[in-house]
Amino acid sequence: MLRELQITNLAIIEKLHVEFAPGLNILTGETGAGKSIIIDAVNLILGGRASSDLIRSGAKEASVEAVFDLEGREALLAALAEAGVECEGELLVRRVVQQGGKNRVFIGGGLATTSVLSELSRNLINIYGQHDAQTLLKTENHLRLLDGFAGALSLREEFASRFEAYQAAKNELAALEQGEREAERRLDLLSFQSGEIADAKLHAGEEEELAEERLRLSHSGKLLSASQQAFETLYGGDAALLGALRRMIGTVAEAGSLDHALAPVADTLEAAYAQLEDAALTLRDYAASVEAEPGRLEQLEDRLDAINRLKRKYGADIDEILAYKGQVDAELAALGNREEAKGELQQRIAALEGELEVLGGKLSKMREKGASELKAGMERELSELAMKNSLFETSFERSSEARSYGFERCEFLFSPNPGEPPKPLAKIASGGELSRLMLALKQLHPDSEVPTLIFDEVDTGIGGATSALIGEKLKRVARSQQVLAITHLPQVAAFADLHLKVEKGVSAGRTATSVEYLDPEARVAEIARMLAGARVTEKTLEHAREMIQEAVR
């Protein structure tokens, strides 16, 4: 709720600090005292139009500060947090209007824009009168008001959820269809790349193996000569090392028969002979293999060139090339499933369309029934508010295509005079009539989404028994929401939970507005003044007391 309001240098207000209370806050005072300026100040807090003409004469700027108590308003606190405004149950909003029309807005202590202020403040206060914040002047609010009255909000939310899924599926299908030509080009490219890598039949570590073999073959002459010479030295001809070693082994073995101490030596020489013989045979086979592959080096060079071409296109080494092929194959699989995905999306869209048709039909029936009941209720309530014979209608605009709110929009139509056809509220209703229309609607659907309601001019043109009825209806609304109301009728003022008297005075040659909180006796005096004007008698005071006592019963 709105807890405090501080106004500085706005019109005839030099400095004014007002504290409000829960329930029904009534502002009274003589014409021109500044009551409407207080409402104008609140409208600035709501992001309403600001003009340098509002600045008090002689001042450089005007400012309005408001403190809101949001304790228990979790939805509002969440909306503020989403907008980047942190507050712990209390919110400070400040609007500064400077000469030249410049504006500064502060929300929660941080600098903000007027548009952000407008977006946030519509969840804080609604003003019913001649102000931009008037809910009923915005036709986009009418359908939600009707849905609230008809008990259709939960069905509307379910419809909106299905519609969001429907739109997401349609967008996904559109993106799929729009990208078909590009997908075909991509498919051709990826198929070529995957095939090129597959044809190469690469395996991990191959490049290192080939490089090692190339090094060996590029020095094949030297390797052949070395292996052949070594073989000849070990095994070739009568002068071969192994032949000499064999003769030596025989000599040592013969000596070992004479002295057993030489027997182990003969065994060692025999083992050495076997190892040397194996080495010689390996050298012989190695030399033969070198001679047997005269064209292998050229094959190796071709293979390494092929690998290098792939590396330039797909990766720094064979591992990266193979990893890239894995990615390509995965994308190919996804692209190959496009038709399947397209079919699934089309089926899903058709199913969601069917669900929207069913839910939309239910929603339309609830709205039609709600509109009929709203018409009867509004015309009854308006008759009680001295607007007899007025007409209230709901006009529907149907659409074959679903929207997030259903298949129709609506607009409230109103005619205050018999014989005149109902017309849009913005074209026909005055500020006072709009206030009474909303007051009537609040009797039928006392929602409490917005914590503070301000009724301006609600009692215009009303008198007699109807005046007290307006007070009763305002009091009823104030049970669930904070209400601020400006009134000239004592019958309405008698219902106040907090009574504020707005006065205009002259100090140091300047006119200034002040606000007085009225205690019980001061309330009696103010209501007596409203009853009798300048001449207040004891009888008038007694009448005022009776009026207050009657209102609190």
Automatic annotation (TrEMBL):
GO terms for molecular function: ATP binding. Residues 2-503 form the RecF/RecN/SMC N-terminal domain. Residues 297-369 form a coiled coil. InterPro entries: DNA_recomb/repair_RecN (IPR004604), P-loop_NTPase (IPR027417), RecF/RecN/SMC_N (IPR003395). Pfam families: SMC_N (PF02463). Keywords: ATP-binding, Coiled coil, DNA damage, DNA repair, Nucleotide-binding. GO terms for cellular component: bacterial nucleoid. One of its GO terms (biological process) is DNA recombination. May be involved in recombinational repair of damaged DNA. Belongs to the RecN family. This is DNA repair protein RecN. It comes from Citrifermentans bremense.
